[in-house]
Amino acid sequence: MALEVNDGNFDDVVLKSELPVVVDFWAEWCGPCRMIAPAMEELSEEYSGRAIVAKCDVDNSPAVAAKFSIRNIPTVLFFKDGKIADRQIGAVPKSNFINKLNALL
Question: For 10-26, what is the mean pLDDT?
Answer without folding.
Answer: 97
